[in-house]
Input
Amino acid sequence: MKRNILYIFLFAALFETACQKDYLDKQPTDAYSNDNLWSSPVGAAVALNGCYNGWEGDYNLLYMDAVSDNSYSQWYWDKYQHLGNGTASAADPDVQIRWDYKTVQKCNWFMENIDRVPMDDKLKARYKGEVRFLRAYQYFTMSQLYGDVPLVVKTLTTQEAAAVTRTPRADVRKYILDELAAIAPDLPASYSGTDVGRITQGAALSLKARVELYDKKYADCIADCKKVMGLGYTLYPNYQDLFRIANENNSEVILDVQYKANDVPNGDIGIMPSSGLGGWASLSPTQSLVDAYEMKNGKTIDDPASGYNENDPYNNRDPRLSATVVYPGQMYEGKYYNSIEAGKDDYYNGNNNSPTAYIEKKFTSNLSDFPDMWNTGLNMIVIRYAEVLLTYAEAQIESGVIDNTVYDALDAIRKRAGMPVVDRTVYNSQDKLRTLVRRERRVELALEGLRWYDVQRWEIGPTVRAGVVYGSRLGTVDAATGKLTLTGDHVKVETRTFNAGRDYLWPVPQKERDLNKALSQNAGY
Output
């Protein structure tokens, strides 16, 4: 699909000139949209590509973990810091970032015009399926973050937009599930050539399974996971290399956002490295995330028999830790990373350096992959097969159906990472397996934008997102060997609050309520 990105860009430019950016503004008229767009299959393809523009993005995917206990956003202007520490208000511009109807507008416009196009019925059905997915995905995100949101599936006049009310979340979720069920048969299992990256049947079923898991519809979730598991996806053999640009569109990727350097680039790779590597260290993994990784023998670090050494804390850990986080003493980009020693380029207290002394590595394991890390073609994965396996395992566990398929799903993920299979003598009950699958979700999917949704649906906010956020202990790093000498306590980054009666949902942005007096507000704001 990367060759189609230019057409996406051109259509987006046409669309934006026709639409103001205020909430649910009127769709473009024919004077702006050009009747020629709907006169041929070529025009329909351009319109379809335009619907993909901005449907999801690297920025939101990367920053969403800062709303959880996995990461810290140190720059308030990046719009996620207040959402992570419990200080966001309805007037805060941060909360506006995901209340976004531009994709919905484009999809509604497409659906109202596509039947004007003389074209093959099967291809037209596929185009409709792609667009309906993009619209459903947007409603998934908004209903997850804001709860009740206006469900709008047609173009609105300015007057209508100013009076629309919030639709109950349950109704929005039913709409999402109904849409995904309806379109799945019309979507192909895979694409080739320039169509790679479009919405597939696997994407529709996987998103449906995700929503069903979140909404505790376990039987439906299990059924949809099984369908996806029969479509031929496999785990990529190397966990760290799974996220490298050379390996994008691999057998594990079910859905991603496609980028192309220079034309429509992923321009946020540079936010992850610290200043000594030319980056901004905008997102910092927390000590809490680091502590979640097991020892390589499969025991947690609080198990006295695990072999964990607090003075050598990164040794003999789950290999996914070193593939996800750059920690002090790790060999990275030709030198041992030193963020804990005053005077060093990456010292945690320096400008554009990580306040936790950890930086993200998952998408930047080899900075040499990017001639310009501010202008890259790295796709951002939205759904991958490992999530489906974890979703299946969790749904089975929560259903009380604990059989070999649950262990097989977890074992496949663990073995790919270089970890031992699940110890069935230890993880032999629903409660213990629930603890395990939740930990596996956290470490396997870390920094991919999903952790907050787990915190939210498990209702563990007061436990994991309140109190002091910690980073690494300070000390020294031997420049020749990487040997750590740690002294003192962990650095303190910020103190977060969490109000369980309020903070599981974001506030409806005040800007939207000023435009539309009919919009109600979430509790506590």
